[in-house]
Each structure stands twice: as C-alpha cells, then as structure tokens.
C-alpha cells in the first residue's frame, strides 16, 4: 500500500513538472516570434571631474611590546618502582 502511494506521488510530481516545462517552452517560443526591437541609440559619455589627490602617508604606529616568556610547567618524576 505504501509503495503504491509513493509511486503515485512521484508520478504526480513528474506530471506537474512536465506541465510547467510545456508552458515555459511555449512562452519562450512566443518570445522568439516577436519582431526585433528597435535599436537604442548610443548616448555620449559624460566627463567626470578629476578626483582630488590625497596624501598616501600611513600613520606611524608605536612598536609592539615584547611578549613575556611562557611559564614553565612543573614536571613530576614518576614514583619509584619496587
């Protein structure tokens, strides 16, 4: 019962996808059959004003402080074996 229900759901999904593809292809065909659009005349390029020149100096930074050394982890000697 569950397998036939699963198959019918898949069949319905395939049918719906096929129908949506038909309408898409019909719309594409009707767009192809339209007459050519008139050409758009080219517009003159506007002249842009010159950008002002800014100095490219970066601010100086203070030197970084020295990193402190890491503390040593104490090690323990193994207990004596008997």
Automatic annotation (TrEMBL):
The keyword Signal applies. Keywords: Signal. Residues 1-27 form the signal peptide. Residues 38-61 are annotated as: Disordered. It comes from the Eukaryota. This is Uncharacterized protein.
